[in-house]
Amino acid sequence: MEKEKTGTVLRVAGPVVTVGGVMAAMYEVVLVGHEGLLGEVVQILGDKTVVQVYEDTTGIRPGEPVKTTGASLSLELGPGILTQIYDGIQRPLPGLADTAGDFLKRGIFVPGLDHEKLWKFEPLVSKGDIVGPGGIVGKVQETPMIEHRIMALPTMKPAKVVEIRSGNFTIDEVVCVLEVIPDSSSPLRRQSGEKRVEIKMHQKWPVRNARPSKERLPCDVPLLTGQRVVDSFFPLAKGGAAAIPGPFGSGKTVTQQQLARWSDAQIVVYIGCGERGNEMTEVLTEFPELKDPHSGRPLMERTILIANTSNMPVAAREASVYTGMTIAEYFRDMGYDVALMADSTSRWAEAMREISSRLEEMPGEEGYPAYLATRLAQFYERAGSVRTCNGQTGSITAIGAVSPPGGDLSEPVTQNTLRIAKVFFGLDAKLAHRRHFPSINWLTSYTLYLDALRPWHKENVAPDFPDLRTTAMAILQKESELQDVVQLVGADALPANERLILETGRLLREVFLQQNAYHAVDAYCPVEIQAKMLRNILLFHEHALSALKKGAPLEKISQIPSLVKLARARFEEQREEILDSLTKEIPAEISTIQTEAAAIAAAE
Amino acid sequence: MLRTRYHTISTVRGPLAFFTKTHPVGYGELVELYQPDGTLKHGQVLDTSDDVVVVQVFEGTEGINAQTGATFFGKPFTLPVTKELLGRILNGAGRPLDGAPAILSDDERDILGMPINPYRRDTPREFIQTGISSIDGMNTLVRGQKLPIFSGAGLPHNEIALQIARQAIVRGKDEQFAVVFAAMGITNEEARTFMDGFRDTGALSSAVVFLNLANDPAVERLLTPKVALTAAEYLAFEQGLQVLVILTDMTNYCEALREVGSAREEVPGRRGYPGYMYTDLAGIYERAGRVKGQQGSVTQIPILTMPGDDITHPIPDLTGYITEGQIVISRELQRQGVYPPINVLPSLSRLMGLGVGAKHTRKDHKSVSDQCYSLYAEGLELRGLAAIVGHDSLTARDRAILSFADAFEDRFVRQGQHENRTIENTLDLAWEMFGMVPENALTRLDQSLLAEFLTKSEAVETKA
Fold first, then answer.
1. Which residues, other chains included, contact A128 with Cβ-Cβ below 8 Å and sequence gap of 6+?
2. Which residue of B has its CA nearest to A57?
3. Model confidence over B175-231: pLDDT tens digits?
4. CA-based nearest residue in chain B for residue A429
5. Is residue B380 within a helix (H) or strand (E), and if so which, with residue range?
6. For residue A587, how far is the Cα from the chain centroid?
7. What is the DSSP string of A442-474?
């Protein structure tokens, strides 16, 4: 048997290495060459095995040894994972910097978790208790914000606690011992696997396998993001999937980062997949300084970053989205709401394409492998709101950026993503050019969660909230049609009520939809305040319309001082009070104008 | 060390030569090819196995035949690095063109380099003043950024790049600068413009020049940016210099990439460019940045000409997805006689937010830039409208915004090739133009900025 464990390199072509004489399973991790570069089996052709290597293969020669490890690419999941920054295959980048310096050298292995550090384990079960699959046996306060729940594997059979410890342990020490309960329903009384189960504070899980859950739950609670265009116009449900496609420079990354910063998820997994190094640095320097608006703690305490920048090995980029998703599932199983941002899924798809073409597979559309659609669907389907194996409810909201070449949305990655994602944030380069941010186009974007979220919105925001949105959207739609006319004949040719629509549309766009990500107050706008802003703008519209009918001039109505106040309210600390008082001021000011107009008309 | 020379060529196709029956050869190894007529060529291993080794020949395969011998070096393509590189003129593969002896150093670097650990990167936030208003004011360049110039055939991208190289400073700091210039497939004449430009300003002594001209082997171009960046990284991160890298023209580099890809019969991606072009370009562009605790930095200005002025062409498209913004040169402005013809609307500096504001430039910078963008964008739309309905049917407000857009192109964007504006000049100029529009159109500027900076210039008032 030992002979089969090592093979030899037969051929090297970029990240793809063909190996002879090893019996490895699909997706098994192997160590290639004298340096032991990490690789993964991607094809088995008779007695040859094809491996994609996660590191640069320069210098590898035919004849070098290849060792199998017997396991597929797996993560270490346990305390110490939060606030970490990993590469695509869960090597901690700070750890790599400690061993190798400022640049990433190859052939270095650093474990994903710190195996020396002691964590204070508090048991949550006692001797004799029954623990089911994925059952929680204890907890560790990992960061002041997040309690890390120590669980049994979700594949474990129900078992009885025979020993439980409490105190400070490393993640390698056993904290709980269980005895599997014999399955009486099995007629043969034959038990598979171990009877005794030892639980340590970490577990391993293969990245390409979804962690199981008991059942899928409906997605009827919104993921609140503090972004007006998202929360009010295109809300996303917890457990939902959203796609952000847009050409370069249209603000994908800024939008992703805003959602990562302000969403009310308890855990954020941010995957920088094939993106810019300097952008990751920005996240890395900002997140520890930014405060979570819900708890006031640094955002980093609930964040895990996966950074596989564009110049890091392509095979690790391919793995990075699975690494991120597996970590998200692990926290979901603890009962948390997790938001997962993948920036950008196009780079992931391109990594698939690159490897596929090196494997000389038959290409599908635009050179992407034929299984692109399946892989994308599998990935997004790992998101969702679930009842976990241990009976908790948890969710993963997946938000994937897509970078369509040339901004052409008909390309395969965008199209296949849109078939799965229920929210589409259409980014618009034109809006970005005129510095309208977030540059989410309100006419092309959509959400399919409106109906599912309506009860929640009515109950928790305001009973009229769904209607406010409908009315505002109708005005914006009408405004856009009128803009086309204005392009031809100028605004002055329109009747007053249509010019009012232009005015209200402008307010909605410039005051409501635009949001300054860099402004201390405006960056985060609670949904209750969003409702008030929207209500005030529509209040203006309603009153202005009736005043117009009674002969008041639009020029005067649109000059009322409260509109300027309304436009500036979003930047003020006391925005809520200002908005409340405007609810009275706007009708009052319009009615004054109306009275004046009536008086002038009467005098004439 | 005695190296075996193999005469086992089986196939030659495009820039590739296939050798059989060699010893185990490493992937990416450097190869020397000896032609029977005595010519020496260089190559690199692209694919290796027991049966066949595929060598990419940098100088092209002309003249290679069955008698050609190959020696494998057991190491990848390297560049000897030393401080002596400064002031040298080398070819696209790093060999001397200036008649001086070859670069000698014990320290040889793999030209592929290694990725900077993202965790060790330092945020680029030092404002580089280029003296060009449309860049400084609207698309600020910061140290460690990679900001390409998207241009077209016949547009003055070289002049702009030279002007940046000539004028770029980080204010308040007295530091050592170096320019690394890599030319790929540009004409002799273009190269001369650059060389003269460097010579005139005395920059040549602190520059390293790598020239692969239009008549040099195309495949050698694949080495040029990598060789240049290896030199740049050494100067920045080991000698502590502030390095500005100019790569021109990346379009020629990508063409060479396509040539090799099709010779290898790879599955082509969009427009025949290889599917791994994104990864390959990222391996170049990402070699810009700053490293924590290091004094030096690498700032990149790659230049590319968009085929058919098409920004959605794969080369500018993939570049834009990797770089931190782009400066777009406009043929329309060029026709209007505006130099530099930078169209600010599609231009972008993603790192601008990090390098502007009270700490770096002036507190009004971001707002001024946003206001200019929004007014200029509106002005251009109005220009289209005025062409249809006539100037006179515009409202007074619209006419004011239209004349702002005209003035913006004429006074703000337009400047001389040797005109070096400070950031204060640039911002004040913008404020002067804000005086042309009614105050309620200045929605991006808050009250305190308006009160402090807005001065209605009398000339404008009387005109109005």
1. A160, A161
2. B27
3. 888 999 999 999 999 999 888 888 888 888 899 999 999 998 888 899 999 999 999
4. B346
5. helix B365-389
6. 42
7. TTT-EES-HHHHHHHHHHHT-TTHHHHHHHHHH
C-beta atoms of B28 and A93 within 8 A: no
- pTM attached to this predicted model: 0.90
Best probe of the A interface among B75, B121, B447, by most A CBs < 10 A, is: B121
Q: Quote the pLDDT of residue A184.
A: 66
CA-nearest residue of chain B to A61? B26
| Sheet (strand A147-151) strand order | A147-151, A136-141, A119-123, A167-169
HSE value, Cβ hemisphere, 13 Å, CA-based, for B237: 25
Identify the top-confidence range among A126-140, B198-212, B450-464.
Answer: A126-140
| β-pair type (B342-349, B325-329) | antiparallel
Strands (E), A309-437: 337-343, 384-387, 393-402, 423-424
Ranges of beta strands (E only) in B218-361 are: 242-248, 289-291, 297-305, 325-329, 342-349
Name the residue with higher pLDDT: B82 or B464. Answer: B82
Interior/surface letters A280-307, b for 16+ CB within 10 angstroms, e for the rest: bbbbbeebeeeebbbeeebbbbbbbbbb
For the segment A357-394, what is each residue's pLDDT rounded down to a tens digit?
888 888 888 889 999 999 999 999 999 999 999 999 99
HEC string of A258-282 equals HHHHHCCCCEEEEEEECCCHHHHHH
SS3 of B42, please?
Answer: strand
Instruction: Name the residue of chain B whose CA is nearest to A408's CA.
Output: B312
A148/A80 Cα distance (integer angstroms): 9
- Is residue B355 within 8 angstroms of chain A, CB to CB? no
A29, A70 Cβ separation under 8 angstroms: no
Burial group, residue A359, by CB count within 10 angstroms (0-12, 13-18, 19+): middle
Could you give the domains of chain B?
5-75 (2.40.10.170), 79-353 (3.40.50.12240), 365-453 (no CATH)
The closest alpha carbon to A99, from A89, A86, A109, belongs to A109
Q: Identify which of A58, A436, A510 has the shortest CB distance to residue B76.
A: A58
* Cβ atoms of A120 and A141 closer than 8 Å: yes
Question: Peptide bond before A438: cis, by omega within 30 degrees of 0?
Answer: yes
Count of Cβ atoms closer than 10 Å to residue A191 Cβ: 13
User: Distance (Å, rounded) from C-alpha A123 to C-alpha A190?
Assistant: 32
Nearest to A281 by CA among B280, B144, B148: B144
Contacts of A279 in chain B (CB under 8 A): 324, 350
Instruction: Examine residue A231 and say whether the peptide bond preceding it is cis (omega within 30 degrees of 0).
Output: no
CB contact under 8 Å between B237 and A102, yes or no, is yes
For an interface test with A, give the residue of B110, B120, B319, B366 to mutate (most A CBs within 10 A): B120
Kindly give the pairing relationship between strand A85-86 and strand A159-164. Answer: unpaired
Instruction: Determine the Cα angle at A191 with ends A188 and A192, to 5°.
Output: 125
End-to-end CA distance of chain A: 107
- Tell me, what's the ipTM? 0.85
A447 pairs with which residues across the strands?
A423
* Residues 46-65, chain B, touching A (beta carbon < 8 A): 46-50
| B305: β partners | B151
**Residue B459 pLDDT grade (very low, low, confident, very high; cuts 50, 70, 90):** very low
* Tokens linked to B193: 């413009």
Which tokens in the block code for residue A7?
């093979």
Q: Which residues of B touch A247 (CB under 8 A)?
A: 312, 320
Closest CA to A382 of A431, A314, A326, A464: A326
Calculate the average pLDDT of chain A.
Answer: 91
Q: Which of A249, A350, A518 sits opposite B278 (nearest CB)?
A: A350
**Confidence (pLDDT) at B201:** 81
